Amino acid sequence: MNIAVTVKEIREQVSGWRKQGLSVGLVPTMGYLHEGHKSLITRAVSENDKVVVSVFVNPMQFGPAEDLESYPRDMDRDAAICEEAGAALVFHPDASEMYHNGFSSFVDMNTLTGGLCGKSRPVHFRGVCTVVAKLFNIVTPDRAYFGQKDAQQLAVIRHMADDLSYGIEIKGCPIIREEDGLAKSSRNTYLDEKERKAALVLSKALSEGRKLIELGERDADKIKDTMTGIINTEPMAKIDYVEIVKWDSLEPVKNIDGPVLAAVAVFIGKTRLIDNFIALED
Length: 282
Ligand code: AMP
What we know:
Blueprint: E1 2-4, H1 7-19, E2 24-29, H2 35-47, E3 50-55, H3 75-85, E4 89-91, H4 95-98, H5 117-120, H6 124-139, E5 143-147, H7 151-163, E6 169-173, H8 193-198, H9 200-214, H10 220-232, E7 237-246, E8 260-268, E9 271-279
Parallel strand pairs: 1-4, 2-3, 2-5, 3-4, 5-6
Antiparallel strand pairs: 7-8, 8-9
The structure holds adenosine monophosphate.
Residues 29-30, 36-37, 39-40, 146-147, 149-150, 173, 175-176, 183-186 line the site of adenosine monophosphate (AMP).
């Protein structure tokens, strides 16, 4: 498995594969890989001849008060995980390789990005769309793999790929959890022992919400109230949002009559965690 740091290296490698008629899958990540990322890579390996994993902590998607500097990084460990999962190539560029001096073109979206995480992270999705658009142009994959863990991101990327006619299949992959229910995340490493326990309140609230829907409850406010009540029992938790929206237009829902995304963002101490479930999907 090779690790490429320049766009040129990736282009040469992919064009070699294309000459052999091979299909290419892309898994974009910010590194510090865990079982969630690995599940995306494994799926990509099973559906493509060659898989490229990008490992890039994208400065453009972090707000000024966010955790760009402290975001965990360990390229040696990440490379070992990618290799073990069967990736053919890792793309690990410097920020200067992705954003040269004078960089001034962005991919922005008018829909889908204003609510949920977009409300408290106003520059986030512009950064995500711009970097993913660049990765799509650099790697030119047949398929790209994203986790439902970041459900809004998945919806946004699907929309962008369609709007901009990329012709790339966007594959959504299920959320991988710790045994006790906490959704795996690189940011879980920020949690101390007490916070780690407190963080369980997210998956607990969501599983109660899911149960209510399964029992036939269709009033979104009632379900949100239940989930909010559960999260508020934890003194270390501070809610950013608890929402139920249409999947995947992300429009607010009052009466649940089709596929919905129930999503929460909660600060546990200084760490902002997100989690969700999708219900009544066809
Ligand atoms: P990140 O490195 O956090 O930007 O995540 C890279 C990709 O991995 C995104 O598509 C995430 O949605 C996905 N991902 C992160 N955590 C999980 C998880 N627990 N289960 C499934 N996919 C995940």
